[in-house]
């Protein structure tokens, strides 16, 4: 899977990944997919919760060499 | 291996996964920390965090020839030992769940960690409290100053959230740039982490055992610290989130977790105080109301910039976040200097009526005092739930 826009949150800790995610989604066109990299274990709970709350779709979470990648589609 | 042997191994694996495959709900952490808090009060006094880190700083600067407070060596002052063991416990928790890695953030973030830590150190000394001593333990101690301090924390947190939103919008570069992550347990790596986790716990228990000959208090504080750190890391328990989320995502879960912990602690603390087992004025600080509101506001701002209060910094440091190491260094620097050069003049300038120890049951009795605290918590609960539904105060 590939995103339309990349958001690199590696090395960041709470609350920066979620803040940056919220800003990035605002700038994204509806229907496009954000590819977000992260290394904070907290993001694994926070990103799905944030998507659930804001009504955006978490399409996939992939474990990578040094962390994880989230694919999030802007829904509205 | 025989079939039943394999099944036993499978059962053990299942048990291990219960604790270490997913994060625990934060409210479970809150309750477990409340129980740990009562244990600490039975052993000596309730949970507190910044006193321990201040002691690290005092010792460091005394070693460098300074003349700062002397509460004892880092391995003999109970709260200092508690903080070290808490960090170790979080380290073990992160290792068991393969979540440890040394995570170097962009330089701007390191700087924010340091500034946040400096502000927390300033606020903790001026306000005679932090989120643990003046909130998580202060409310159960039925100290009205703790409520004022918490009010300050809310104000500081709210201001800092405004700042963070401004920063991410206007200066996104500050939180981007080169980052490194080493020793991580990514895909297919890191099977050494759980093994090292066991080693850390065993070392921690040996340390605790070695205290049994000299100090029963330390012999208990050491393993309880280990336990607190493990619980914090596994449940990602975070007072900053409890106060911040209403202004950010609107989630009420972290606030409920803190309330759960306060409720459990209050049960135990009231029994210990009411029955005369422990002194009534313990954890009732002389900060009602001016030091509490000023210190709380500064501390609240600092912890939100740093991304963790004193305990939040300690357990995240144990998980390997270098930003929170910077925050701890900031606190270690700010606290000794504030205590020596700022706090005395500040407190001298205040009339006694503005720096009181306010133990609520002294004025209205235990029953009504507990009732007042429960009522405040009910209002807090209704607020976060209403805000979660309506998003009135949330940024997104």
Which SSEs are present, and which pair or pack?
The complex is a heterodimer of chains A (76) and B (396).
Chain A (H helix, E strand, L loop, with lengths): L4 E5 L6 H12 L5 E6 L4 H12 L2 E7 L4 E6 L3
Parallel strand pairs in A: 1-2
Antiparallel strand pairs in A: 2-4, 3-4
Chain B lengths: L2 H18 L5 H18 L6 H14 L14 H19 L5 E3 L2 H20 L5 H5 L7 H27 L9 E3 L9 H20 L4 H20 L3 H6 L8 H22 L11 E4 H17 L3 H10 L2 H28 L5 E3 L2 H5 L1 H25 L6
Description of the molecule:
- The complex is a heterodimer of chains A (76) and B (396).
- With 76 residues, chain A is an alpha+beta fold.
- Chain A has a single domain (5-73), classed as 2-Layer Sandwich (Translation Initiation Factor IF3).
- Chain A is 32% helix and 32% strand.
- Chain A has helices at residues 16-27, 43-54; strands spanning 5-9, 33-38, 57-63, 68-73.
- A four-stranded mixed β-sheet of chain A has the order 1-2-4-3, with helices on one face.
- The mean pLDDT of chain A is 93.
- Chain B is mostly helical and 396 residues long.
- Chain B has one domain (46-390).
- Chain B has helices at 3-20, 26-43, 50-63, 78-96, 107-126, 132-136, 144-170, 192-211, 216-235, 239-244, 253-274, 290-306, 310-319, 322-349, 360-364, 366-390; strands spanning 102-104, 180-182, 286-289, 355-357.
- In chain B, the strands form two sheets. Chain B has a two-stranded antiparallel ribbon with strand order 1-2. In chain B, strands 3-4 form a two-stranded antiparallel sheet.
- In chain B, helix 3 packs across helix 4, helix 4 packs antiparallel against helix 8 (192-211) and helix 5 runs parallel beside helix 14.
- The mean pLDDT of chain B is 96.
- The A-B interface holds A 8, 10-16, 18-20, 22-23, 39-42, 44-45, 49-50, 53-54, 63-67 and B 23, 94, 97, 99, 101, 103-106, 109, 164-165, 168-169, 172, 175-176, 179-181, 184, 186-187, 189, 236, 238, 241, 244, 248-251, 307-308, 316, 319, 321, 323-324, 395-396.
